[in-house]
């Protein structure tokens, strides 16, 4: 691995909340949400701290929380919680070859079997997978993560962490759509 190599990791976490009793499909939920059906409501989950939740809320059918969230700006319904309660983490390797072509390899998508999502456990999870491929993190490797504090903390030592550009772009667009002096109607369409 050279200094131009970049290691990209995106950890995806799913909740261990048991699945709800409602049996609506995603399409049915989307239809109800789009038509502003009174049986559908939205609320922020109590235990979220991420700024990402500014644009999302959990979907409720009648008074029951569902395994779906909705983007409050575009009204798209997304799956949120795993039906079996298992958390997953994925790692991919991105690098530029000798012909200057970007190469991408999925290294792993594995069950996240640590008891918490604290930064030390995230780092242990990633290090364990990288060790299997003989790919240690060091000062010549770049790692790209989201901009959560736990990710910043997990990858503050022995590696060059870079915040995900997609998250930065999302923040710019979010700011533009909330600022009245910026006309972003074309962007929102």
Please outline the helices and strands.
Blueprint: E1 6-10, H1 26-34, E2 40-43, E3 56-61, E4 64-71, E5 77-79, E6 88-96, E7 102-111, H2 119-132, E8 142-145, H3 149-154, E9 160-163, H4 165-178, H5 185-188
Parallel strand pairs: 1-8, 8-9
Antiparallel strand pairs: 1-6, 2-3, 3-4, 4-5, 6-7
InterPro entries: RNaseH-like_sf
Q: Can you tell me about this structure?
A:
25% of the residues lie in helices and 28% in strands. With 189 residues, the chain is α+β, with helices and mostly antiparallel strands. The protein folds into 2 domains: 6-14 and 84-168; 26-79, no CATH class. The strands form 2 sheets. The chain has a 5-stranded mixed beta sheet. A 4-stranded antiparallel beta sheet has the order 2-3-4-5, covered by helices on one side. The chain is globular.
Could you name the key traits of this structure?
single chain; 189 residues; alpha+beta; 2 domains; 5-stranded mixed beta sheet; 4-stranded antiparallel beta sheet; 5 helices; 28% strand; disordered N terminus
In short, what is this structure?
This protein is of the alpha+beta class and 189 residues long. The protein contains 5 helices and 9 strands; from the N terminus they run βαββββββαβαβαα.
């Amino acid at each position: 691995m050279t200094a131009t190599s970049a290691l990209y990791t995106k950890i995806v976490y799913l909740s261990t909340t048991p699945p709800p009793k409602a049996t609506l499909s995603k399409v049915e939920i989307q239809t109800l949400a789009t038509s502003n059906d009174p049986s559908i409501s939205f609320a922020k989950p109590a235990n979220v701290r991420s700024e990402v939740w500014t644009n999302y809320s959990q979907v409720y059918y009648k008074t029951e929380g569902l395994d779906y969230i909705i983007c409050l700006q575009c009204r798209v319904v997304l799956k949120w919680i795993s039906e079996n309660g298992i958390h997953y983490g994925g790692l991919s390797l991105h690098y530029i070859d000798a012909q200057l072509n970007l190469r991408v390899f999925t290294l792993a998508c594995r069950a996240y079997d640590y008891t918490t999502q604290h930064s030390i456990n995230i780092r242990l999870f990633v290090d364990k997978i990288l060790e299997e491929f003989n790919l240690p993190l060091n000062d010549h490797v770049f790692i790209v993560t989201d901009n959560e504090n736990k990710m910043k903390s997990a990858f503050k030592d022995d590696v060059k962490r870079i915040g995900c550009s997609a998250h930065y772009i999302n923040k710019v667009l979010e700011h533009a759509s909330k600022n009245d002096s910026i006309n972003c109607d074309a962007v929102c369409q």
